[in-house]
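User: Reviewer 2 asked us to show a designed sequence for the structure in our supplementary figure. I'm pasting the structure tokens here. Could you produce the per-position amino acids so we can include them in the response letter?
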């Protein structure tokens, strides 16, 4: 069973298909590390847009998500329909409009 999602509260690792952390009962749709990162990026005024980065050997579902999106239109990770044996390994990369204050 691939373990790719991590709870941002208790750091338990679980498969993509799990919606609630078995250890602390956190809702992983809003409290996984990916969801927490997305929330942080969206609230940061220096982040202009987000890029979804994928692994070189990703599945077709993940390959379709690869690219740059506005903060409002970026797809939610893990990718729905990911068929890779290790689960979704996509992640967000912020594109900044300002590097230094």
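Assistant: Here is a per-position design you can include in the supplement:
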């Amino acid at each position: 069973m691939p373990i790719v999602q991590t709870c941002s509260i208790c750091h338990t690792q679980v498969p993509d298909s799990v919606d609630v952390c078995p250890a602390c009962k956190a809702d992983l749709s809003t409290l996984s590390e990916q969801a927490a990162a997305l929330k942080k990026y969206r609230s940061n005024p220096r982040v202009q847009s987000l890029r979804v980065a994928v692994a070189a050997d990703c599945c077709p579902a993940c390959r379709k998500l690869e690219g740059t999106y506005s903060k409002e239109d970026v797809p939610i990770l893990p990718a729905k329909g990911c068929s890779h044996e290790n689960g979704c390994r996509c992640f967000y990369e912020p594109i900044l409009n300002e590097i230094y204050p």
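For the response letter, you might also mention the following. Residues 5-96 form one domain. The mean pLDDT is 92.
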